[in-house]
Amino acid sequence: MTRSRDLRSWIEKLEAEGEFKRVSVKVDCGGEIQEIARRMIAQGGMKVTGGPAVLFENIEGHEHTWCKKLFAGGMNNVGRFALMLGLPKTTVLPAIVQKLRETLRNPIEPAHVETGPVKENIIKGKDIDLYEIPVPLWHPLDGGRYINTWVGIVTKDPESGEYNVGCYRGMITDKNRISMRLIPSQHWGIHYAKYQALGKPMPVACLYGWDPSLVFTASNPVTTISEYEWMGSIMQEPVPLVKCETVDLEVPASVEIVVEGTISPDPATYEIEGPFKDVSGAYGEAKEKPVIEVSCITYRNDPVYTGSATGITPVPEEQLLLTAVGTTPILLNALQDEGVPGVLEITLAPFLCVKIHKAFQGHAKQVAAALFGHKALSFPFKILIVVEEDVNIHDPAAVIRAVNDNVDPARDIYVIPMERAIVDRALPPEALDEDQYGIGLGNKLLIDATVNWATHPKRAEWGMKRLPPKDPPPPEMVEKVRKRWEEYGF
Q1: What is the spatial distance between Cα 146 and Cα 135, in angstroms, rounded to a whole number?
Q2: For 352-382, what is each residue's pLDDT tens digit?
Q3: Of 313, 374, 294, which Cα lies nearest the Cα of 124?
């Protein structure tokens, strides 16, 4: 019988693929781990391979705590997204995106089990101590130890029972308290508002260390299926869910560590969260935020905590990679479902670009209207460039050339006052006050880099094309030069 997928099976897979490194020498949590993780990220990014995932096995100050190990960098290059999907790590990005589109169309319901490895150890009451977990100081100016960086946060709608699993940052403020950046417009923020209206605390479970599909789905704005269903589709097996000990939630039975608790509806209980260096590379401000009051910790024998060194710019670190790779199939499916024709490809890195087979004047505006209305575009994708099918959108130089060739700044650039953003270092702090506005007040920009049909009609002398044909060299001259190349002295 094949073992169900979890963090340990993922580490075994990475090790077999040459994508994994154990660090057994002693390292500290005060910056050394972060710098090692940063260097691994710098080797990875949009490359297919490079930058091994790292398991730190000998962490200063954690020689005798119940949690001694930290895993980081598990998804810091594109090849690992292919491995997550059961594909060869050399699979090209468009094929990865297509496979993810298929998983979104084929959800697999979770299974409910009585128990699992995460129940091997249970801590409650006065024995709870979050400082037993080796949480690094990820950045020098962080307000504290950010335990929630590579995490799945589970909540449930008190009315419908609908689950959400999201990746939201959180900082340890005491041995049994975590202050959380809870944004009202996010899915769990909507859940929290309902609990506040009921005057009840919101149950929460924080998940550390499982199959990579956990944080992948938690980091992406899926709306058509639940995160647990998407995880199951990615793994091609149901997620085995077990009940928590102290809150009415279910979590994967073989996750490494689960921190259970509740968030009070009373703002008087809020504590300072921040500053923290987020994915934009900038430090967010410290503010009073809701707090998880921890009621229980369950964990596997010899558990492995997971974390991530966010905010490593200009390298596309793994948090951004999760969003860039995961949001692409979500947006492609959304455009298809909205009936937007002719959409061929999308890329989110290094900028948001859509390739279309242009069907009508104003086609780019329809693309922008559909995309900017999607909740994914709350993230740092504020500039959309739409190009035609002859442009390689994965080549920044080709995209810029299309802009230079086809864009009249007075006619083809549109500022769209969306007032919708979460992370945008260009905005002043007051514009990012999600407590005041529910979300940041960021705007969007459309650059229509397609050929304008009004100013470029079809012309008979160009074979009824809107632009003159490209003028390649005559084949006979290409062949002549090829034959004489050495004769020229090159």
Answers
A1: 7
A2: 899 999 999 999 999 998 888 787 666 667 8
A3: 294
Phi, psi of 312 (to 5 degrees): -90, 90
Rounded Cα distance between 169 and 182, Å, is 8
The residues spanned by each domain of the chain are 7-306, 338-462
320, burial (CB in 10 Å: exposed 0-12, middle 13-18, buried 19+): buried
Question: What's the start-to-end Cα distance of the chain, in Å?
Answer: 62
Q: Which element (helix H / strand E) includes 235?
A: helix 227-235
Helix H or strand E encompassing 250:
strand 250-252
Measured CA distances, 302 to 27, 257, 466 (Å):
18, 10, 66
335 with 373: CB under 8 angstroms?
A: no
Q: What is the pLDDT of residues 316-354, one digit of tens each?
A: 567 878 888 888 899 899 899 889 999 999 988 777 899
Q: How many CB atoms lie within 10 A of CB 194?
A: 15
d(CA 202, CA 187): 13
Is 62 in contact with 27 (CB distance < 8 Å)? no
Thinking of the domain 7-306, which architecture would CATH place it in? Roll (2.30)
User: What CATH number does the domain located at 338-462 have?
Assistant: 3.40.1670.10
